[in-house]
Amino acid sequence: MSDVPESWIRCTIGSRCNLVNGRAFKPTDWSEKGLPIVRIQNLNDPDARFNRFDGEVRSRFLIDTGALLFAWSGTPGTSFGAHIWNGGPAVLNQHIFNVIFDEEKIDKQFFRLAINQKLDELIDKAHGGVGLRHVTKGKFEATEIDLPPLSEQRRIVAKLTDLLKRSKTAREELAHIPRLVQRYREAILASAFRGELTADWRGKASAKSKDSLATGLTAIRSAYFRQAGTKEKPVLSPSWMPDIDLPGTWEFVSVDQLTTLVQYGSSAKTSESLTKGVPVLRMGNIFEGQLDYTNLKYLPACHDEFPELLLRDGDILFNRTNSAELVGKTAVYSDVGHPISFASYLIRLRVVGYLPELLSAYINSSFGRAWVRSVVKQQVGQANVNGTKLRELGVPMMPMDEQKELWSRINRTFTIIERLSKEATRATELLDRLDQATLGKAFRGDLMTEVENLKSGKSYVAR
Predict the structure, then answer these.
(1) Same domain, yes or no, for 276 and 412?
(2) CATH code, domain with 274
(3) Which residues of 416-434 are buried (b: 16+ CB within 10 A; e: fewer)?
(4) 142 lies in a domain?
(5) How many structural domains compose the chain?
(6) Are residues 178 and 61 in the same domain?
(7) Which residues, in sequence order, are bridge partners of residue 82?
(8) Which of 48, 170, 304, 345 could form a disulfide with 321 if both were Cys (CB 3.0 to 4.6 A apart)?
(9) According to the model, what pLDDT value does residue 276 have?
(10) Is residue 155 part of a domain?
(11) Residues 345, 322: contact at Cβ < 8 Å?
(12) What's residue 133's pLDDT?
């Protein structure tokens, strides 16, 4: 890296500020009124919901518009970074530093940009795994930045504001895409389970038996229990169904009618260090309708609940306890070639006569979310949906050949949506690299020199 101009000084972040970490709040501290609690998601997403606190707060945790904040914990690429708060009086949550400094010596916007220009370096120093990492106070304070005179800081900020304006506009437009993708997914699933997505297919399909789908399902289910040599219990009827008109060849059945097994996972204490044991999937391993096999914990292979609680290909996992926003999320397990179990906050469903992927998609759809809201129970900051309520959920049932066609169309459409989403992510990453290159030039002192040379008509040769 080239030397900075002589008028600049190299210093540590810690030598120019004091850092005050936010307060650790528990879910039981949250309220519907009072000051907003500023969490990392509130810095990264202006539409993120606020939790609130209506009690006494020490002054060191209070912030107001204009506070310079640094999020020091989370997921690299999304959580870390310096921000200027503009939301009025609030209380600061843990994992965020309030950066207090002398504004007569350092321009606030310059300080924010200087810190963010060091993000890659800070993330490299962060502790933790690939998913969740944190920067210690000591390492943040020891990070060096180059500091020009105040007047030069302000000139750099003005020029960077102009240069980064276009990329900021593009980034703001790209930031809308994840929400649009989510809405499009929801619209596709709503269309699918109203029968609209396969309306043309039904029009071309040959006439089918007029026998009740539920009757055929009962026969399949009973045959399973006879073959397994186990007693079949009476099924529960649907107690909740979405207010939609189904096609004439469809009907509602309950989850109980579709399943041969509804089972809670293990409540045994797991360990991160027992890596040669059996991985145990937990609620955090279900993400956007898929299973994430990172951040696993384990039970010994000789655990007394095995093999009863080992997953089979096609088992559905339903998250019965979580926050109100996340409870009810669902995914299908596909065999990974070695034993895997599941924890007690998950319920395993084993399905007959219905595609597991289709049932999972239905529970994750807007219809499934509406059902969750209607049956959920709140307990000390946690939301819960029990197994009985799950068994009573009404599900649109269609012939198996239409199930296959429906899932094929959903999957095909989701693949296109995912490709567009990845392209938007790549575009955002390119903007980030462009901005980092511009910031790097600015904080080496090269940017203003280049600007002055361009103004005077001189050719600029990078040092």
Answers:
(1) no
(2) 3.90.220.20
(3) eeeeebeebeeebeebeee
(4) yes
(5) 3
(6) no
(7) 70
(8) 345
(9) 82
(10) no
(11) yes
(12) 78
β-strand partners of 396? 252
Whether residues 227 and 351 share a domain: the answer is yes
pLDDT at 339: 97
Regions in the chain scoring below 50 on pLDDT: 1-2, 454, 457-463
Q: Are residues 355 and 262 in the same domain?
A: yes
The span from the CA of 117 to the CA of 95, in Å, is 20
Instruction: Count CA within 13 A, CB hemisphere, residue 284.
Output: 7
- Confidence (pLDDT) at 454: 45
**Pair 366, 322 in one domain:** yes
**Ramachandran sector of residue 460 (left: φ over 0; alpha: ψ -120 to 50; beta: rest):** beta
Asked if residue 215 belongs to a domain, the reply is: yes
* Spatial contact of 414 and 154, defined as CB atoms under 8 Å apart: no
Last residue of a domain, one of 107, 125, 149: 149
Do 417 and 392 share a structural domain?
no
Whether residue 384 sits in one domain with residue 406: no
Distance between CA 69 and CA 251 in Å, rounded? 54
Q: How far is CA 212 from CA 203, 236, 248, 253, 258, in A?
A: 20, 17, 11, 11, 14
Q: Which candidate, 215, 305, 311, 307, places its Cα nearest to that of 261?
A: 311
Residue 132 lies inside a defined structural domain of this protein: yes
Q: Annotate 256-278 with b (16+ C-beta within 10 A) or e (fewer).
A: bbbbbebebbbeeebeeeeeebb
Instruction: Tell me what pLDDT residue 127 has.
Output: 74
| Whole-structure pTM value | 0.72
Q: Which of 351, 441, 358, 339 is nearest to 398 (CA)?
A: 358
Q: Tell me the residue range of the domain where 118 lies.
A: 9-149
Which residue has 């870390």 as its token pair?
A: 80
Whether the CB-CB separation of 370 and 242 falls below 8 Å is answered with yes
Q: Which of 138, 116, 143, 118 is nearest to 127 (CA)?
A: 138
pLDDT for 207 = 59
Sequence-ordered list of residues with C-beta below 8 angstroms from that of 9, at least 6 positions apart, any chain: 146, 147
CA distance 84 to 69: 6
